[in-house]
From TrEMBL, chain A:
PANTHER family to which the protein is assigned, alphabetical: 1,2-PHENYLACETYL-COA EPOXIDASE, SUBUNIT C, PHENYLACETIC ACID DEGRADATION PROTEIN PAA
Species this protein is from: Nocardioides immobilis
Gene Ontology terms: cellular component: cytosol
InterPro entries, per the entry: Aromatic_CoA_ox/epox, Ferritin-like, Ferritin-like_SF, PaaA_PaaC, PaaC
Signal sequence region: none
Coiled-coil stretches: none
Protein name per its UniProtKB record: Phenylacetate-CoA oxygenase subunit PaaI
Gene Ontology biological process terms, A to Z: phenylacetate catabolic process
Automatic annotation (TrEMBL), chain B:
Name of this chain's protein: 1,2-phenylacetyl-CoA epoxidase subunit A
InterPro entries recorded: Aromatic_CoA_ox/epox (IPR052703), Ferritin-like (IPR012347), Ferritin-like_SF (IPR009078), PaaA (IPR011881), PaaA_PaaC (IPR007814)
One GO cellular component term noted in the UniProt record for this chain: cytosol
SUPFAM superfamilies xrefs: Ferritin-like
A Pfam family matched in the record: PaaA_PaaC
GO BP terms in the entry: phenylacetate catabolic process
Coiled-coil portions: none
Any GO molecular function: phenylacetyl-CoA 1,2-epoxidase activity
Organism: Nocardioides immobilis
From TrEMBL, chain C:
Record-given protein name: 1,2-phenylacetyl-CoA epoxidase subunit B
Family matches, as InterPro entries: PaaB, PaaB_sf
Amino acid sequence: MPEIHTHEADEHDSAYAGLLVNDAHWAFGTDFEDPLAGVDTTVPEGIDAHELATYCLRLGDDALILSQRLSEWCSRAPDLEEDIALANVALDLLGQARLLLARAAAADPSLVPALPEGSPVPPEDALAFFRDDREFRNACLVELPNGDFAETVGRILVFATYRLSLFQRLTSHPDAVLRAVAAKGVKELTYHRDFAGRWFLTLARGSDESRRRLEAGLARTWAYRHELGEDDEAELVLEQVLATSGIAAPDVRPISTGGRHTEHLSRLLAEMQVVARQHPMGVW
Amino acid sequence: MSSAVAEPELAAQFDATVRRKDRIEPRDWMPDAYRKTVVRQVAQHAHSEIIGMQPEGQWIGRAPSLRRKAILLAKVQDEAGHGLYLYSATETLGVSRDELTEMLISGRQKYSSIFNYPALSYADVGTIGWLVDGAAICNQVPLCRTSFGPYGRAMIRICKEESFHQRQGFELLMTMMRGTDEQRAMVQESVNRFWWPALMMFGPPDDASPNTEQSMAWGIKTHTNDELRQRFVDMSVPQAKALGVTFPDPDLKWNEERQAHDFGQPDWDEFWDVVKGNGPCNAQRIAHRKQACDDGAWVREAAMAFAEKQKVATA
Amino acid sequence: MSDEVRGEWPLYEVFVRGKRGLNHVHVGSLHAPDDAMAVRHARDVYTRRNEGVSIWVVRSDAITASSPDEKDPLFAPSGDKVYRHPTFYEIPDNVPHM
């Protein structure tokens, strides 16, 4: 590969001198290897390993499916800056998903689907790519199609607000791995909520069209937020964002999902899993 | 107020700056033709980054492992960033991103023809990284020293990220070659499809490239198309060997005398056909970009309307 | 300004302080509807959200620049803007050879 010749400038000339080193957010410096490499995954005394695993799976599936949806925006966002921002959110959630699925698999290996003898597929991928729709534990909110930018903003706002509130509590969870995942996630989710909150306000007060779209989109996601759990703190934050934006909470009753997924999930998974399933013995 | 300086003197200063390989900055005097050439080349480069998001981007949703999904998403995101840096370089000459996007969509400006070929398997993600980004690096590394300052500075950032792109592509192919027979066949099939289009990325042969001479005199281009193509072939042959794949060129062999590889010519009729809009994906790529622009118009307008209202509120 | 009518976001210049003790250095530009969004975009685009990094953004048209060369024929009256070339201004499509 050819050398890149650049001026070896005095570090005072280069704002990137300190930036380009050891920064996990930079693509060319990012470590994409085993998410839990070197981490002690022993389940602490007094915690039911299966319960912990299914809990992590639920949290991981939420992140994975929303990440899958958000990455559909790639090359389709309203402008390049937003394309990059949405990809950042999707990448963060994908990172959370990997950690949580790996945690689930380590805590209770019996949850990992069986693959042909000798398959090199790692547990996180077996969980992501070789489970059927009914085995996914995510909330319906994250599997709904993206809709327009306003609907996506509303959904990120609701999701990030609930998840941030939850992750703040999980930073004192007895399981050290989950605690660490939560601590990392809190920073990310704060940013996601901030991104969505700012756009929510912008669209609410921007034009008549943006306001109409925001309200319509929010009505669709609002009815699904209860699946994320009871959380007064999250509700309070959402109330504040809506009030600041001058948007009334949509007058919609919770959708009764009967604990089942929507029709959208199996199609989403069909796309997500197609290559992996064609090559159960493949290495990537 | 200082007095205006006659154009010949300015032209002489400009030429002297370029000759001593110094940079031309946006507010310097420059010949109109130089300005136009820079805008055209940088815009075409920016468009290539943005259109180039599509063939790989459609595989993000189908990436066969979570690790690959993260790598690919980060890579395609980088391409949006590269397009953004490059559009910024043209904006220093007063041509806005919206104007350039309009020129792209209306077909008045081009992008690299390679992106008019389809990405048909996951191996293509690897091949695009290895061969397409590899060819791009050959083209781009010299551009870090291009005469127009903002372009060169954008290229320094871009080249740093592109080398990651090429490595991830090669590493994906290497991993797949260690996998199943089906995976190995996927890799070879993909390399067969991309080899010739990759060679075409360097542009037509020197004797059919009318703009090259002037661009080199101005320091906008630093090597001819054929020089770079040769360098790319020489670089790629040992990499293919390490990988265990072959290139679909019966004429490809080492020439001891030239200390370089001889190789066959791509189908230039096909090249011109694709450039003129008849490639497999030309219409699809532009339609996709136009759709994103159109769909986002109300968002961009709403944000401006909001900013205006804020200004009034705080005034 | 004509670009507001079209809904194109104004251009901002981005300055980043890579670490404590260093100056803010110009790293590039981007588009944003307003200052607050420009800072967010700068974090996303130019630092991929590296924390602890200080970012300045300023609208490009708010920058006053000196002439690069005393002999600059456009030193006045318009030489004090970052953008000075005619193409900065809207030209209808049907005007040839622009």
